[in-house]
Amino acid sequence: MSRLETEVQYLKGVGPRGATSLQKLGIRTVEDALFNFPRRYEDRRNLPPIRSLQPGQTATILGQLISVDARPIRGGRVISSAIVRDGTGKITLTWFNQPWVKRQLEGKTGSVVAFGMVKQTVAGLEMASPEWEFVADDEAAEAFARIMPVYALSDGVAQRTVRAACAGALAYLDDLPDPLPPELRRREKLPDLAWSLRQIHAPDSEIDRLRARSRLVFEEFFYLQCGLAQRKQSTQTEVGIAFPIKALLAGETVVAAEARTLFDPAERTGLQGQPLMAQVEAMLPFTLTGAQQRVVREIWDDMAKPFPMNRLVQGDVGSGKTAVAACALLAAVRSGYQTALMAPTEILAEQHSIGLRRIFEPLGIRVELFVGKNSAAQRRSVQAKAESGEVDIAVGTHALIQDAVKFRNLGLAIIDEQHRFGVMQRKALRDKSEASPDVLVMTATPIPRTLTMTLYGDLDVSIIDELPPGRTPIKTHWKTTSQRDWVYERVREVIGQGRQAFVVCPLVSETEKMNAQAAEDLYSRLQNEVLPDLRIALLHGQMKAKEKEDIMARFRDREFDILVSTTVIEVGVDVPNASVMVIEDANRFGLAQLHQLRGRVGRGAHASFCVLIADDSSEDVRQRMEIMRETTDGFRIADEDLRLRGPGVIAGTQQSGQSGLRIADLVADSKMLTVARAAAIREVGLNPGLTGDEWELARQRVAEPRNDMAVVTVS
Fold first, then answer.
1. Of 27, 62, 64, 677, which has the fewest Cβ atoms less than 10 A away?
2. For 668-690, what is the mean pLDDT?
3. Residue 214, in any domain of the structure
């Protein structure tokens, strides 16, 4: 057995009892302790004279113990205190309900060193609940007055126990091999692992601590990026479909031999002889922006390659991702292949189906909807059409990946709002084809660059960074619940000008567990009390698909003035005449989700507004509301959301929880992520399998489950 597997109970200051408590933190062995990194540090090196201390200052003091006392307080508890003095002044140290402190100090004469927050009281300077030690000499005082690690704790685990375990584990560093090859460390100017771990737990200086942390952050990111680089490289060696894009751009009528279609798509579309871009211009009722054209070219270039496309398209709300997707669908269908577009909700799938039918059916291209609430007869019908090849574009939800759905020749799979799908769901859609279909994933939730590199490093990324002309800027206001009546009077004024409004609530109906505005309750109150003269509709996810589609269609046709809804209208809903978005209990939504909801307005030529109703209940709420007021830039909002809420889950196929990173921070360490990514791409490019004895340990780290990047929740 390796010495690194030694149980922590044998480390000085731990023992069996301490080892039992450390198991709550996952610390069982010496190696566990070495890789249990501090969450912050206390700099105790400064030893100011007591007279110079200021209230609110965190400081380390050294002085003579003058007296010790303990006085009882209500409830059988006790306040222990000690007075410490140096040549300049004195300070009182106090401990709440820690009677053992008096026993530990009583009867002793000598020096005490203590660290804590200084405050001013009527009796003078005080330091409440300080960390302290009784010191025999200057050497002992120096050992206390250093950069002290502070570790994350769990209930019943003492900081002193964790420190003892981590400090004791440093004696075993000589047994710890360095997984990074010497040549890589030399090239990246990285210190060795043993030195880095010693400096991270017991730093000699702030410079050494930061250098050690950089090494450990690099290493953590490097393993993640190697895994992603290997995944991307393996995809590029996989045999895929080489769509005849060049021939289509030249206007040739081409049906790939392997497509095995029953029909000639060029003949059905009536587009024989027209170049692909001309067909796009004939298909779309508007001109693509420069950014859309660039992204379409990137997609078509990928589709022409003989290995499967794996591309992520990011675009802010209203940037025109659906139009870009339509260009990819057209190219695949014109090549003789079937396509599929999977959306996370039925209302979004229905919206896509309506929009795609509008532009494709005049060309003879057949679009079918696959959703869970289809009748049994409808399901059998569309499944038969998909299997026979009579469906060109299948639009649906998770219903598309049911075992009963089979395609004749699926060539392209598009996944919209992909962050709402797990890894296995995306794989299930891809596995619907005997060939390896091209995969295009899209999101209207801008993803910070660091998350993109970390989560989607195996994908090529396209960004639509330009909004179509005519998009009206949206002015955002933040109002409290006491101003709610004023808000709805302004809504009435806008509707009087011929516009429409969305009102979004976090809940469908009232619940005792959450004090939040419910859609059903608000709908009733608005219709019967606040705005009884206006036409108001209610929409939520518990309604039947047909009912939801009917309500949305009637709202688009201006039969209703106000649509009270839950977040089912978050994405994909396009009502140009709607110019007001009111979001109730806006504090209950993340920034990305608020931005998505706001994007439902501003789609017409009229001035548009978003009103966030939320009380100023915390600093976090204040920050988020102010960010929404300040900017409509989705990528800036995404960065702020990441900064405020953290990255969520990163490892495996989970969709929520804590980050899988031990020491790296996706926000603070973005520059190191870029460095590690470049190094990983270089090393995997030179040595795809990371073969060789010098790579053995690194190869094992890359293969660990925590480095199998999958998905993060950012909404």
1. 64
2. 92
3. no
